[in-house]
Amino acid sequence: MTKQSLFFLTVLFCFSISSQAFSFSGPSAMDMPAEIDVKGKTYALKNLQPPFPLRGKAGEQAFQKGSKVYFKKCFLCHGDLLNGKGLFGDSFSPPPANFIGKDTILKKPPAYAFWRIMKGGPGLPKKFEPWNSAMPAWEDSLSENEVWYVIAYIYQRSHYLLTIHENKSKPSIKRGKALFQENCTQCHGDKGDGKGITINYSSPPPRNLTKGQYKLRSTPIGKIPTDEDMFKTLTLGMDGTTMPGWQVLSEPDRKSLILYLKTLAPKFEKFMERGRKHKIVKVPEPPAFSLDSVKEGRQLYLENCSGCHGFEGRSDGEASDRIVSISSGDIWPRNLTKAWTFRRGSKRKDLFLTLRTGLYGSAMPRFSKRLLKDDQIWSIVNYIQTLSPPQKPKTDKLIHIKRIDGELPNDPSDKKWNSVDTHYYPLGGQVAEQDKSYFPMVESVKIKAIHNGSEISIFASWDDPTFDPVLQKLIPLKESPVPPIPEKLKGLKEPKEKEPVPPNPQEFADSFAIQFPVENKRSGEKPYFLNGDKENSVNIWKWNSYPLGVVESNAKGLGSVKPQAKESQGVESKAIYQYGQYQVVFKRKLENSDSSQDTQLEPGTNHSFAFNAWDGSSDETGTNKSISSWFQFILE
Fold first, then answer.
1. Among the residues of 242-394, which ranges form H helices?
2. 626-627 vs 428-429, strand pairing mode
3. Which of 230, 309, 322, 347 has the fewest CB atoms within 10 Å around its CB?
């Protein structure tokens, strides 16, 4: 047995004893083809081995090179901890592979990993529904060596993550420095200045740790956090960002890491030299929830918060566009209708502390006791909790679309929609091909649908804090108003009226598309979910803000979208925009004569749809978009 084979067996043994609960149940080694073709070169997989050794200095070089590939191409889905819980981990079904689970590609021969990376979802055996796997085929963008580098990184890094928690040594700066170099530099950089590999692929970008500015603290704004604050952030991570929770490290190791992090910013040393003590912002016990406090909280919210967070909490306040700069890390104010994205958490005490301390390094200010008393803060907290469900909605892989009698609604404002079930679908960035969307604005869509036996109406709503200005005179539109002046400030100089903006279209339209498979009568196969594939077409209904309306198209892969002829356009639409949210109704006949291009919708039969979204103001266009997997529906 070679040393190289022994290395792989050692790694595979570590995986066999892993106690992780979930893993990707993909094809077995028996399903691996005998050979694959990549750019005209044939690879016999049975005895395929890496072209370089993976141990010693050569192994370390492969690991370091693989790290760069992984954090440029893979970590948004598979995650910093290789557990399939990256930023887009919840966006696709099936989810990204978990490399530290019970049944992973690493329990199979190295050639298996080479095959899966090169061929991705489109290269899966047909029985595994390749059309729904978001795993890209990397054969066109990674070289043979780069694939082996990333395999070396995944194998070695996974072994490390499965064993690192066993360390129980006494916390020390020296140990913390080693842990930082092993786990944190890819994002935060070798010097801790936030200039790691992922700086261009993360929003917000990784924190510059040399400034000593931490968002989540129990101390006043501008002050350094306590060790307990840092330990909590390190343990839980930051929801909605690429920063994971580091429970994989033992408690002594997390404390070692904190000791080292404090050496990166001079603020901590000065604090100790001056004999300072932390001033803790105390969170009192919350009063009983009441409707009167919610009413007061709404008024206080409108006066103090709506300027950024918007009239209904969707980040569309009139001040937002002045404080947002994605390139510098100044991101949009939190969408308060999605409590599961709150960095600190959405419990009442979490919200109270955020309002009292602010979020250092962001535009979120603190509200001092001189400005708002404790009972007023609690009223705002109570109101904010009414804006969102407490948990992220579940996604139904199969829904039943209700049948009604009579005319279908074609307007988002129609009251008939009030009695129709709402279904939540997550969206993730398209990262398979250039141009890519590393941090898309639209991360979910809500769908309602009904039919009457001859037509279908689909209501789509998605949050977008900006609207295409050309729509001001084209559709019903409600903007978040300028916040009312608090009573104590009335009588001072009135705010200057904003100059009206000419209703010209933005450079790229805001768009939303519903995609359906076109039946392949010859093979019976379903298209790949990324706009189809060479063998199988999709039918796309795409609404655009400009020119306003829906265009029906067909595609056989990303970049191959082709609009149908004018006489084949059969979808009508109507749109409104209000307080940071687009609402669009699509309406079409269930069946038509153009079965070669259009999906035919038959009651009682399983059908599929998927969704794409573009925020034009964020320069999203073409393949730079949000996407979803296929989801199933049945017309009752």
1. 251-264, 266-273, 291-304, 306-309, 320-323, 348-357, 374-385
2. antiparallel
3. 322
The rounded distance, in Å, linking the Cα atoms of 115 and 38 is 10
Domain presence at residue 279: no
- Angle, helices 144-163 vs 3-16, to 10°: value is 50
Q: Which residues contact 346 (CB under 8 A, 6 or more apart)?
A: 339, 340, 385, 388, 390
Domain stop point among 118, 134, 164: 164
pLDDT in tens, 528-542: 999 998 889 999 999
Give the bridge partners for 512, in sequence order. Answer: 543, 613
Output the CA torsion sign for 123, 129, 135, 136: positive
Q: Same domain, yes or no, for 528 and 631?
A: yes
Q: In angstroms, rounded to a whole number, what is the distance separating the alpha carbons of residues 20 and 7?
A: 22
Neighbours of 198 (CB within 10 A): 21
CB atoms within 10 A of CB 322: 11
Does the structure show a pLDDT above 60 at 326? Answer: no
In the predicted structure, residue 8 carries a pLDDT above the cut 80: no
Query: Over the stretch 220-263, which tens digit does the pLDDT of each residue have?
Result: 988 999 999 999 999 999 988 899 999 999 999 999 999 999 99
| CATH number (domain holding residue 602) | 2.60.40.1190
Q: Looking at the structure, tell me whether residues 484 and 570 fall in a common domain.
A: yes
Considering only CA atoms, give the Rg of the chain. 27
pLDDT surpassing 50 at residue 23: no
pLDDT band at 493 (very low <50, low <70, confident <90, very high): low
pLDDT at residue number 13 = 32
Tell whether 427 and 543 lie within a shared domain: yes
Q: What is the pTM of this model?
A: 0.90
CA nearest neighbour of 239 among 350, 153, 317, 98? 350
According to DSSP, the β-strands at 631-635 and 398-403 are parallel
Mean pLDDT of 37-54: 91
Helix, strand, coil % over all residues of the chain, rounded to 5: 35, 15, 50
| Chain center to CA of 578 | 23
Residue-wise pLDDT for 197-206, tens only, equals 999 888 888 9
| Whether 160 and 173 share a structural domain | no
d(CA 348, CA 367): 16
Can the peptide bond before residue 486 be classed as cis, meaning omega within 30 degrees of 0? no
Residue 629 and residue 520 share a domain: yes
Domain count for the chain: 4
Pairing of strands 35-38, 41-44: antiparallel
Write the CATH number for 372.
Answer: 1.10.760.10
